[in-house]
Amino acid sequence: MIGGGFQNVFKIPELKKKIVYTFALLAVYRIGVHVPTPGIDAAAMQEIFAAHGGGILGMFNMFSGGALERLSVFALGIMPYISASIILQLMTVVIPHLERLSKEGEQGRKKITQYTRYGTVILSIIQGFGISVGLEKMGAVIDPGWSFRLMTVITLTAGTAFIMWLGEQITERGIGNGISLIIFAGIVARLPNAVVNTFRLMSTGEMPIFGVVILLILMVLVVAIIVFVEQGQRRIPVQYAKRVVGRKMYGGQSTHLPLKINTAGVIPPIFASSIMMFPATAANFIDIPVIRDFASSITPGNLVYETMYVAFIFFFCFFYTAVTFKPDDVAENMKKFGGYIPGIRPGKRTADYIDKILTRITVGGAIYVSAVCVLPSLLITKFNVPFYFGGTALLIVVGVSIDTVAQMESHMLNRNYEGFLKKGGIKSRGGR
């Protein structure tokens, strides 16, 4: 069905234009990943990643699409924008002004987006400065000093601002969520290198063939679980009462309210990763032993890191679900149109019932996301496999693919529905 439907993708001019536009902007992003920041010793950077590329630097590098190991103009990636979005969403809950803006429709959202951009620039400056100081200490800079630091901060901040613009343009004029697709493109672009590196480890005997077989089985199993759960729903039955309007009768049909098992999608692991990266950056230019010890302890595979990672995933699963799905609003809309859940009184009781089910589903969804992101990474650490094979990368790649394909299918269905209406209209006029 999907294969047959997607044969017609490029026969729809508008959808074809969106897809081509999306690929063109992603190509621009991938070109920028290879543009180096001035003043970097490339050989020293390769040595640093050869020695420390499996830890938090590997996580940074995965989300930047390989830009960090080259320290290209896009080395910070999209993570400062994601961090700024987290901060703004959290502040929306506690600051009345931002809460009012979030309820003012399109104009309010534009204002919050503007604040997010300002926050992105501020965080990029902080992280860019931290990276420049850290590189100087590691000996990866040709001519260290304030000129290099300022140049690096300006270059990396401009790169992140440009990526942010690319993501917004893809969301508005392309297909899919621009920010998620940029992360997706970075991870997918690293997969060929990951495969080559894995074969290299096999040839040198660092990784046994048995380990590769287990890795492949694990990957297939994780992908199957992700697809199954991401498509899963809890359907609440809804009945609409019959209403007489004029001479016509409306309602009386049965339907359902679909609640996704993982309402938050790939947002929790992305947000959690962004939060976990910040202490590692801060430790580069905050010379306090406690902070340095804490930053060194939070590396992938470490118990402290994985525990905090799971805690942040749970938090963002519940937080993002609470922000995007309002049981009170759903119950009010159902009541307005004569809908009710059998056995549940309309209004407050319905909202409480939906909230109760949503909470249980979100707990299951958070456990699923945590297991997918953490367990493969822990197992992979034991086999000494490059860590972009981990569950976080797989969840993002599969989740973003499913969402993008769903948007394409929705666009095709809308187009077919509009064409059907037009054909119907022509026949109707012809029959008069």
Distance between the termini: 37 Å
Q: Please give the CATH architecture of the largest domain.
A: Orthogonal Bundle
Number of helices: 17
Strand line-up in the sheet with most strands: 4-1-5
- CATH hierarchy, class of the largest domain: Mainly Alpha
Uncertain runs are: 423-432
User: Helices and strands, in N-to-C order?
Assistant: HHHHHHHHHHHEEEEHHHHEHH
What's the rounded overall pLDDT mean?
Answer: 78
The rough form would be described as globular
What is the radius of gyration computed over CA atoms, rounded to a whole number of angstroms?
25 Å
Structural domain count: 2
Helix content: over 70%
CATH superfamily of the largest domain: SecY subunit domain
- CATH fold title of the largest domain: Preprotein translocase SecY subunit
- Strand residues, percent: 5-15%
Structural class: mainly alpha
Query: Biggest sheet, in brief?
Result: 3 strands, antiparallel
Query: How many individual β-strands?
Result: 5
In short:
A hairpin with a 2-residue loop joins β2 and β3 (248-250). The chain folds into 2 domains: 14-191, Preprotein translocase SecY subunit (Orthogonal Bundle), CATH 1.10.3370; 207-432, Orthogonal Bundle (Preprotein translocase SecY subunit), CATH 1.10.3370.10. The chain is built from 17 helices and 5 strands.
Observed structural traits:
three-stranded antiparallel beta sheet, 5% strand, 5 strands, 2 domains, Preprotein translocase SecY subunit, 432 residues, mainly alpha
Task: Write up this protein.
There is one protein chain. With 432 residues, the protein is mainly alpha-helical. The protein has 17 helices and five strands. The strands form two sheets. A three-stranded antiparallel sheet has the order 4-1-5. Strands 2-3 form a two-stranded antiparallel sheet. Strand 2 (243-245) and strand 3 form a beta hairpin.
